[in-house]
Amino acid sequence: MYERTMVAGWGDMDFNAHMRNTAYMDKAADIRFMFFADHGFPMAEFSRLRLGPVVMKDEVEYFRECRLLDALAVRMELSGLSEDGTRMRIRNEIYREGVLAARVTSTAGWFDLAARKLAAPPPALMEVLRAIPRTEDFEVLPGSVRAGDA
């Protein structure tokens, strides 16, 4: 699986002195972009392609508090992908001291910035998607490209 160590920073905290709920989604988004950058798709490439990820649904489950300056192991796996690559479901698990603190599951797609709709990724990006380590409960998702759209 893909994993990076991050830190629960000052801007991640809430009034109760633990990590705010949206900070978990921010860490999940950060690791996704780190993964794509590490695999040949930095932000500049997405800009050049006029293609970007669009999240359609986030689900966050909490198991343990994270506090200021805690080291967090953030993992990323693929729990779903459509055959055409237009839709994906990415699961991020966030660990503190080796114990699961939170799980973020995001359903997303690839947004064509010119056409303003979901689109199939180019072949090189599809290869990267297929290379993401998969969860045990991985499933094939319905696609979004219809005849005449491709």
TrEMBL record:
<dbReference type="InterPro" id="IPR029069">
    <property type="entry name" value="HotDog_dom_sf"/>
</dbReference>
<protein>
    <submittedName>
        <fullName>Thioesterase</fullName>
    </submittedName>
</protein>
<dbReference type="Pfam" id="PF13279">
    <property type="entry name" value="4HBT_2"/>
</dbReference>
